[in-house]
Amino acid sequence: MKTLSQLVFGPNRPDQMLMTIGSLPDGWPTQYEHALQVELSDSSCNSWQRSFAQAAHWASMYLPIRLNAAAQLGHPNIDTLKELRRLSSVTERALFADIGRSFLRSVEDALSGGAVCEEPDWQLVYLSLGQGNPVNFVDRGGTLDQWRQSFVAAWDFIGANLRRDDVWPKWSFMAARFASFYWDLWFTQNIQLKDNPSPRADILSRMPVPVQAMFEVIVEQAGSKLNNSGLPVLGAASDNARYSVRRLVEAVLADTRLGPVTPESPEARRGHEDQAF
C-alpha cells in the first residue's frame, strides 16, 4: 500500500492531472482515504511524521487551488471540484478527530490561556484554536496588529523547529494551519460567523465558539466558488487582509524540500525573510 506522501507527491501525483485535464487519477480518492485512516491509526499520540502532515495538508488545501487554476486554463470539472471538497472535508474531520486523542491538561490550559501559554508552541495553540483567537482577541479590546505580532513571535520559534524536524507536534501543526487557511478566510473576507454553531461531540466542542464557527464555514461550504487561494468565496474583500499570516506559515508547511538547517544557511535566512509578510 502506498503511503499518503507517495499518493500526493509520488510519480502519479494528482495535481499533474488536475492541471492538464481537470480530473483525478482513477481510484485515487479511495486510495487516499484508506492511507489517511491507516496512517492516523498508526500515528503516535502527540505527533505526526512530517511527510504525512504535509501530504494531508497539501491534499486538503492545495489540490482545490490546482483545480481552480485548471478551470482558468479551460479545464473546468464540477464533479472533480465536488470530490476534492469532499476529500478536504474528510481530511479536516479526520485530523481534528485524531488530535482529540491527545487532549491533555496542557492542551486544555493552552486553549484557555493558562500559564502554559508562556511556551511558544502552546502560545500558537492559544492564538489560533483557543481563547486568544482573532475574534475573541478583538472582542476583549486587543487589535489585530497585536494579535499578529504575538502570533509571529510564537511562529518564529515553532517554524524554525518544524523546518528541521521529521516529526511534527500535532497541536502546533493544527494551530498553524488553522491560522493559515481558516483565519485567512476571516481576515480576507467580510463574513459573519455564527454565534451558535451546530452542537458538537468532538474535540472542537472544547474550543471557543469562533473556532467552531470557522470550522463549519470551511468544511461545510463544499459547493462554494473558490477564490485564487483555494478558499470558499463567502463575502466581499476585507480591509484586514494585511493581518493574514498565511504566506509566513505556508513557507514552512507547504515546503516539501525541508531538512536540517543551520542559522547561517540559505533556508534559515529565507525563513526570516518570509516573516516580513
Question: Major beta sheet, specifics?
Answer: 2 strands, antiparallel
Number of domain modules: 2
- The percentage helix is 55-70%
Strand order of the largest sheet: 1-2
Low-confidence sequence ranges: 260-277
The chain-level structural class is mainly alpha
Radius of gyration: 18 Å
Q: Give the averaged pLDDT, no decimals.
A: 86
Write down the overall geometry. Answer: globular
N to C succession of SSEs: HHHEHHHHHHHEHHHH
Amino- and carboxy-terminal Cα gap? 40 Å
DSSP E strands, number: 2
Strand content: under 5%
Number of helical regions: 14
Provide a short characterization of the protein structure.
The protein is an all-alpha fold and 277 residues long. It is 59% helix and 2% strand.
SSE layout:
Blueprint: H1 4-9, H2 14-20, H3 28-42, E1 47-49, H4 50-61, H5 63-72, H6 78-99, H7 105-112, H8 120-128, H9 134-139, H10 144-164, E2 167-169, H11 170-188, H12 209-219, H13 246-253, H14 266-274
Antiparallel strand pairs: 1-2
Helix pairs in contact: 2-5, 3-6, 4-6, 5-6, 7-8, 8-10, 8-11, 10-13, 11-13
Write structural notes for this entry.
The radius of gyration is 18 Å and the shape is globular. The longest helix has 22 residues, at 78-99. With 277 residues, it is mainly α. Strands 1-2 form a two-stranded antiparallel ribbon. The chain has two domains: 4-100, no CATH class; 103-274, no CATH class. Helices cover 59% and strands 2% of the residues.
